[in-house]
Amino acid sequence: xxxxxxxxxxxxxxxxxxxxxxxxxxxxxxxxxxxxxxxxxxxxxxxxxxxxxxxxxxxxxxxxxxxxxxxxxxxxxxxxxxxxxxxxxxxxxxxxxxxxxxxxxxxxxxxxxxxxxxxxxxxxxxxxxxxxxxxxxxxxxxxxxxxxxxxxxxxxxxxxxxxxxxxxxxxxxxxxxxxxxxxxxxxxxxxxxxxxxxxxxxxxxxxxxxxxxxxxxxxxxxxxxxxxxxxxxxxxxxxxxxxxxxxxxxxxxxxxxxxxxxxxxxxxxxxxxxxxxxxxxxxxxxxxxxxxxxxxxxxxx
Length: 301
Description:
single chain, 301 residues, mainly alpha, 12 helices, 71% helix
């Protein structure tokens, strides 16, 4: 365990973007929550053909639910940026150690290839997501506090009512979602690690052109696009499970009825019952096994 902990810390030493990028995004969200102009547009809305104040249309129950949605909304941009950063890290980490020949030094240490690959995988799918979760916890609290101060003397004061039980429930829900996301994206991270260990040169070109080439051949020979659909599903399926509209209609979410729906659909733990998630975990294990075998035979060439 001490060796694995040291190897994971090594990843954060060598790849500072793993913790600097989430920290920068969290600081930006807090900054956006505390600055900007306060518009009174939308103070009056039309409900059942009658014009009324925005806050008058919100019941106390809906205000607490809106508070829960607001807390959860602070995690989504951090999660998206994290997925992009982790993807570049997984694609580059094993490739870079051959390019700068540091692989010769690391192979001279009493650390197995399986330990090294596992540490990189755990850093990408577990440690970084948990770091982002902790940052989102702090960000949501500070962001809500700043938003409350901004809207204190406006018609929107009290639009989202603080509720400690809701806050704790949302934090537990977001922690579960973070762990589910780690399982869901595990095969993609493992596949990128495999590509990082496999390709000897022009890594990004191969990673970009190979899926396109496979899709083109499949399209021309079989008239199907299963590869493209699989990659798309594995990339955005988690957000679809959260109820995030990706290219879908927004009309029914534009009004107040969307609050209840979004609040109940922020739970992604339903994916744990999906065979696709566990098949992906098995695929991740297979990809990691191949990555270890390839790295065992690698040198600085």
